[in-house]
Amino acid sequence: MIKNKIISNLKEAVNSCDLELEKAEMSIEIPHNLEHGDFSTNIALLNAKINNLKPREMAEKLVAVLSKKRDYKSVEVAGPGFINFKLANSLYVSILEEILKSGMNYGSSDYGKGKKVLLEFVSANPTGPLNVVSARAAAFGDSLYHIMKFCGFEPFREFYINDAGNQVDILAESLELRYRELHGERIDEFPPEAYHGEYIKDLAILLNSLEGNKLFHMTEKDRLKKMRNFALEQIHMMQMESLTKFGVEFDNWMSEKKMRKEGILEEALSYLAEAKCTYENEDAVWFASTKFGDIKDRVLIKSDGNPTYLVPDIAYHITKYQRGFDVIIDVLGPDHHAHVSKLEAAIKALNYDPAKLEIVYLQHINLFDQGEKVKMSKRAGKIVTMDDLIAEVGCDAARYFFLDRKPSAHLNFDLELAKKKSSENPVYYIQYAHARISSILKKAKKEKILPTKMDPKVLKKLNKTAELAIIKKMMSFPDVLNTLSDVREPHRLANYVFDLAGMFHKYYSKYKIADPKHIELSQARLHLITAIKNVIAISLQLMGISAPTKM
RNA sequence: GCCCCCGUAGCUCAGCAGGAUAGAGCAACGGUUUCCUAAACCGUAGGUCACAUGUUCGAAUCAUGUCGGGGGCGCCA
What we know:
Blueprint: H1 2-16, E1 28-29, E2 39-41, H2 43-47, H3 55-66, E3 72-78, E4 82-87, H4 89-102, E5 116-120, H5 132-150, E6 154-161, H6 166-182, H7 198-211, H8 220-245, E7 252-255, H9 256-261, H10 264-274, E8 278-281, E9 284-287, E10 298-301, H11 310-322, E11 327-332, H12 337-349, E12 357-361, E13 365-369, E14 372-373, H13 386-393, H14 395-403, E15 411-414, H15 415-419, H16 426-446, H17 456-459, H18 465-475, H19 477-487, H20 491-510, H21 519-543
The chain binds one RNA strand through strand 10, helix 12, helix 16, helix 19 and helix 20.
């Protein structure tokens, strides 16, 4: 909003000076150094050449016009040709008023222009409890959903259930073995590819309590089918429960089994055949993906007649396109980037727009406890699950720690730190700022110095550097949200709110906020911290973290 | 061999659609409480932004290459 104002002022000035703009995309920045003003632009550096001027000369011409505006305390040329703006205090006041008026809607916008966005995340195999990578995906996807919604996109959350295919058969067989064990059978060698986790034993016990030995009277085929459906259903419920506990919801659960029943695999295959990019070789059906940028051709139908995982994957993505999304975001784990070349090839082959598909890769997580890396082995069934983690550090800390890092970076998760209730732990530091403000407001209310309405004359009392800096920080909030909804990086919000909380704590310890001796000044400050509280609360809400009023 | 991610303070990491003097937290050291929540604050110290070349008014940021770390490359999913 302020930025737009500056841009239009600049363009006016350019016109009135009879100058030209070669590169219209100048930057309007908030300089790190306060001496460089509140905002700064490089317009003259970018466009001096075309006007046959030196950057500083062009900047001076513009400044001559701009400094007549009332919104700026000063407009100056600096360095190699930057133009630095200092805002008039009245502008700060009007910004603060706007923040307060917007309340919990501050920062929301129509920036996304109602673009329909499909966000697919977690999509863990239904063969076991959710692990920490799924937890990271859940925190990431859910926050991105809320942020994009807040920024005017129309996002849609989807979980793809891989409930068909080979690994599901292995799941059924694993359960069968545990079930037979329960009935006294000795299993000498539990196959290495089977699922070894304790949860399979629990499922066997549960199944046994429901069915007893009835299952042995069925044919093997029927029994395995029963095992499979039972395991899938139970594990799916387990996963949903974990996600609910974590505060993560989905708009749709897409079942591969169901899609297969609807004949969507055959449909996908026939589309590819129609596009003339399949062929047979050695009893298998191949996709000529090299025609579309892949490094080698891929098998679609194995020589045993079964489809590879690629077919349902392509079929699923066809549905994503058919459902009319403008943006399709796949949040994938660290071991999936090899899929994408094949998938993209298929999308090109079928003439869908590959630019609509965006892949976000989440990287690995290493858990550390007491400085030691926690060793996990999926094979031996020794993994830390999402439930373990939540039980250990709590939802708030877990979500914050997952969001604090950019998705593409490996994440070292310090369990000890996440459990700490001190300023070392950033999530407490932020929540504490919120609680502290709540407490001050409560006290001010009791002492009857809490203002009931806004008065610009009162707000003008805010003129300390720290106060203006905080307003400036809050002023950038909508921009931060818009940018991160564009680049899909919620970690920027975590960083932002941490900074804001820090600014508040420092401000608090330096200045008395609610002081009955100075009513007007106190009221102005109470307005200021109310605004801070709102911005912190909004940020935490978007990250799925609670904002306590008392700690 | 090919592909993806990472390399910034002792540690964990921000900053990267190019901008002015590179930031924060932790750890280290030294301080702050008759005062609205000390779950806080202040101060000190700490850097060849892995390296090289290029692009330009300007590079931690972009490009190419090198080195180092992590992960991935089946008619498994």
